[in-house]
Amino acid sequence: MKHKIFNYAAGFLTLALITTSCVTDDDLTQLDPNNDSVDKFWKTDQDALEGINATYSSLLTDGTYMRSTPLLLDVKADDSRTNSPWGSMYNVGHFNTNVADPAIYGWAYETYYQGIFRANQVLTNVPKIAFTDAALKNRILGQAYFLRGLYLFHAVNMFKNVPLPTEIAVYYPQKTQEEGWAQVIADFKAAADLLPTSYAGISGIDAGEKGRATKGAALGYLGKAYLFTKDFTNAKTTFKQVIDLGVYSLVANYRDNFTDTNENNSESLFEVQFSRAAGGVELGWGGIPASNWGKTSARAITYAPRAFGWTDVQPSWALFNEFHDEATTTGAVDPRLDATMFYNKPGGMQLYGQDFATKYAGNQADLNDLFCAKYQNSDGNYADEYDWRSGINERLLRYADILLMYAESLNETGDTPGAYTYIQMVRSRVGLPNLATAKPGLSQAAMREQIGHERFLEFALEGHRFDDIRRWGWLEDGAKLAWLKSRDNEFNSYAPGREFFPIPQLDMDNNPGMVQNPSY
């Protein structure tokens, strides 16, 4: 048999040598008849719209806002804690992520770069299309810049020194975090120049579609990138541009920002669109989307109270206690407490159609514990979260954040008195006293502390707190770090460098020249 195979191979080689001179380059270019979509795509306005839609879809998978990204943003902070039996998640909350185990952080990293790749396809191919609607072309390019900026924002913010793909190539060299922030800023600037304020008043095949990136969203994230890089002057100017658009306002009911009953409201600058009614019933765990994938989130079951979901994330007692630091003007407890967490409230509290005290009466540990209420389908329409199918949109950027970041920028540029006005807009919604009366004449340093307190309560369990801790330099401040440890024992596991996640080993292996982040 070996002899026959050798003779066959030798004969084939001889035939190949004889016929080589007859083969042209065109003969070597073969199209797979089952996969020629690339050559037929990127021809029409509709193709361009579908291309940008695919770029949005990377926001819906497990690596991003279906589950992993909220976890990565939340569980290191002092507003939350995790005793998850899943070691990968427990380790994130205890600053002990393992390079050998890419679960959660590696999935996020992979999906950010999937989204970046899709955005780059749009930015590469859409300019070549002869559009019938020139304004649509600008909107699609603006969305591509915005989404690339958003995915890069997460990559740079959480992984520090990362590749910065701005075109389609095989390898992308690792860049510094400073270079990363510069690219994020450039993308959001480009997006802001191209995007409309709203899709309600436009004509075109995307007219009236909610959830698409707008000028306000691009400016909001641009200001945030300036703030994170301590460019307070540009941050102040950019946040004021958002305010001056005149299209955003705080909703009357704080809780409306975390349910499926008032989505895409006046307070929302950008949110990820989830729906129980869209798509199939399978969850988007990652990779190439399939036709049976749904558009639902697994955040609710992951954060859900005991017996209603997995309870992998819980509020901290430091958060619970700080909500009691200041009463409303009527002497009541800050109403954001009940919108943020479930607890054994005097007088009773309902969750999933049941009374808290009655539900947990047989278990003293649970009866005296705290559970997450934000982003839970807990109003009684559903018995629990075990179907893994939450349709609640993830609010990535709220107007309240713009107001408090603007106040911070004013304080950092010397206008501490001016910061009061914008802080009070957020406080007034929940009935807190006038800060200018309660704490008049705060110094710049004291106002920094006050803004830290305001942000802690307003954005609890929304993925902002650890970003704030890191950018404010608290981890390098011995007194602040000791304070964090005193209120959240998870910080006892912190080591310098662990404020960032490691570069996944797969990328280290496949991308020549990559250097791992310190402490890993």
UniProtKB/TrEMBL annotation:
The lineage of its organism: Bacteria, Pseudomonadati, Bacteroidota, Flavobacteriia, Flavobacteriales. The keyword Zinc-finger does not apply. Keywords: Cell outer membrane, Membrane, Signal. Belongs to the SusD family. This is Tetratricopeptide (TPR) repeat protein. Pfam families: SusD-like_3, SusD_RagB. Its main location: membrane. Residues 80-227 form the SusD-like N-terminal domain. InterPro entries: SusD-like_N (IPR033985), SusD_RagB_dom (IPR012944), TPR-like_helical_dom_sf (IPR011990). It comes from Flavobacterium granuli. Residues 268-520 form the RagB/SusD domain.
